Amino acid sequence: MKNRIREIAETRVRYGYRRVHVLLRREGWPVNAKRVYRLYREMGLQLRNKSPKRKVKAKLREGRSAPAHSNDVWAMDFVHDQLYDGRKIRILTVIDAFTRYVQAVDVRERYTGADVVATLEEVCKVSGYPKSIRVDQGPEFISKDLDMWAYARGVELDFSRPGKPTDNAFIESLNGKFRTECLNAHWFLSLADARRKCELWRRDYNDVRPNSALGYQTPSALLGRSPATSPPCAIEPENSTSEWSKNRVKFSSSHWQHHNGPVLGGRDRVTWVS
Q1: DSSP string, 209-271
Q2: Directed axis angle between helix 113-127 and helix 144-153, to 10°?
Q3: Domain ranges of the chain
Q4: pLDDT (tens digit per residue) in 143-195
Q5: Which homologous superfamily is 73-223 in?
Q6: Would you call 82 helix, strand, or coil by DSSP?
Q7: Nearest CA to 196 among 125, 244, 250, 133?
Q8: What is the pTM of this model?
Q9: Among 58, 179, 184, 196, which is most buried by a count of CB atoms within 10 Å?
Q10: Which helix (H) or strand (E) covers residue 173, if one does?
């Protein structure tokens, strides 16, 4: 069992003992959480979580009711990152606040209000239209394109107050996990590679990752969906990143390797070699 716990911890580096315990139980291991916790600590796998800077309970926006069912409330926001060569990318994340199902993780070099509408339409073809969507007051979200789309579809845009990220806590929490578990764990070799890796993370989050807010169920299980049903973004072949596969890279461990497809992990430092 120790070997299996270590294997899970090595592949899912941000999982604590509770999620490791859930995965072990899924695999049929007759073990309770206390034993997993003891073994987890004995092997030195205990996570070091950041302590909050202020011990102040966040004041949530008044007048909002808790989501009552699927498609009652969605939330969306942008995350920023970059490709290996420094080119900036923007990622639109969309989550159902009740089921915690991640509807979209859409990667583009730039985003306009019309692009947001296009992504939402693709998602809604599969999931249906939400009653409301919580957003901040970014230019894409206050655009005429999104406003007209929401009016035509009967969707309420619920805007956060300026400078109050706790007004959209669902998406802020998701984006923190997304950055830790995906963005900080990979080099993105091209836009297509970023889309592929982010979509794989989305599927894993929905179909595999135990969610503590759902009693350690997965969002897909709560919805009764089969894994990876109709993703909004198609996964492109890994070897489609031609500008990378033609070059050699040098890892920080001084190991030379031709890269023809394997995924790089851990944000290893790389140096181009002519």
Answers
A1: S-BGGGTTB-HHHHHTPPTT-S-SSPPPPGGG-HHHHTSEEEETTS-EEE-SSPPPBTT--EE
A2: 30
A3: 2-42, 73-223, 238-273
A4: 999 999 999 999 999 998 877 777 788 899 999 999 999 999 899 999 999 99
A5: Ribonuclease H-like superfamily/Ribonuclease H (3.30.420.10)
A6: strand
A7: 244
A8: 0.67
A9: 196
A10: helix 169-181
